[in-house]
């Protein structure tokens, strides 16, 4: 597979990524103009993810052929999706769209296909299962010969990574509201499958390809350790979300308990 997409495809990918950042900025500015609060850190995170996507589409990462590809894979399928999800684009869209657009977006989010895709085991299978098919099957070698197939694979890697990250982090509204246990199990399972896949690349390159031993080992290490770092970041987001939700729940229960224990004013006067 090539380091980056060819000419027009690369420009199209970069343009779409940067266009998404512009749309995010406009929607956030609209919220602030009407007096709503929206953290600029979310805009910064989303923009960083979009710029990263544009950069890896236009410029080949340094290193050997397979190492460069693997850096692109990590950026496109793991790092950029995490940065974009931290920007909470769906929440921003729901808050900034007019009522008609909000209803249509909610109808999509509540549809059966989206609910099926947002089920954590399904999202994990689409993400890591696709990588196993790519690196342990004939797809990688075929994509090297067909630019259109390489472009489709890049789109899948990004879309599957974005879906999995959004489902695990659960920062934006999701159908079915999967619990932390199921999301955590999906993260652990996907992380283990990703690590095993990286280890197999130490021993053998994708079928139909040939890379130098150093290039292959460096790419496998990048996939293994880079994937671990992103998965630790995902686990941190999940843990912080659980901690914040637990704190809010305890605060609500404390307020309700205080309300029940406080005697009515008339009763205190009668004592």
For the residues shown, what is the average pLDDT?
88
Oligomer: single chain
**Biggest sheet: strands, sense, closure?**
none
- The SSE string, one letter per element, is HHHHHHHHHHHH
Give descriptors for this structure.
271 residues; cell membrane; mainly alpha; 81% helix; disordered C terminus; transmembrane; globular
Characterise this structure.
This protein is mostly helical and 271 residues long. Helices cover 81% and strands 0% of the residues. It has helices at residues 7-33, 40-58, 65-86, 89-96, 99-109, 112-117, 120-136, 139-145, 147-169, 180-203, 213-261, 265-270. The chain crosses the membrane at residues 12-31, 43-61, 73-94, 114-135, 147-168, 180-202, 222-244. Its main location: membrane.
Brief synopsis:
With 271 residues, the chain is mainly α.
């Amino acid at each position: 597979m090539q380091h980056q997409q060819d000419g027009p495809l690369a420009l199209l990918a970069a343009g779409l990524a940067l266009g998404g950042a512009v749309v995010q900025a406009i929607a956030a500015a609209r919220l602030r103009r009407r007096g709503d609060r929206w953290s600029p850190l979310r805009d910064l995170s989303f923009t960083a993810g979009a710029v990263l996507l544009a950069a890896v589409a236009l410029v080949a990462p340094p290193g050997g052929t397979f190492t460069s590809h693997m850096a692109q894979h990590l950026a496109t399928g793991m790092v950029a999706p995490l940065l974009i999800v931290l920007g909470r684009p769906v929440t921003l869209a729901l808050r900034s769209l007019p009522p008609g657009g909000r209803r249509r977006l909610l109808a999509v989010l509540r549809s059966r296909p989206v609910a099926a895709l947002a089920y954590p085991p399904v999202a994990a299978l689409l993400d890591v299962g696709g990588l196993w098919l790519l690196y342990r099957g004939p797809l990688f070698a075929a994509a090297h010969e067909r630019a259109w197939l390489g472009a489709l694979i890049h789109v899948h890697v990004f879309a599957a990574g974005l879906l999995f990250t959004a489902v695990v982090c659960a920062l934006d509204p999701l159908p079915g509201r999967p619990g932390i246990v199921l999301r955590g199990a999906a993260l652990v399972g996907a992380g283990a499958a990703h690590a095993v896949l990286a280890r197999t690349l130490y021993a053998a390159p994708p079928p139909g390809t040939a890379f130098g031993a150093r290039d292959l080992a460096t790419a496998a290490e990048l996939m293994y350790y880079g994937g671990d770092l992103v998965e630790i970041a995902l686990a941190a987001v999940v843990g912080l979300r659980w901690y914040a939700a637990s704190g809010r729940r305890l605060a609500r229960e404390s307020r309700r308990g205080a309300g029940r224990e406080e005697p009515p004013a008339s009763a205190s006067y009668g004592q």
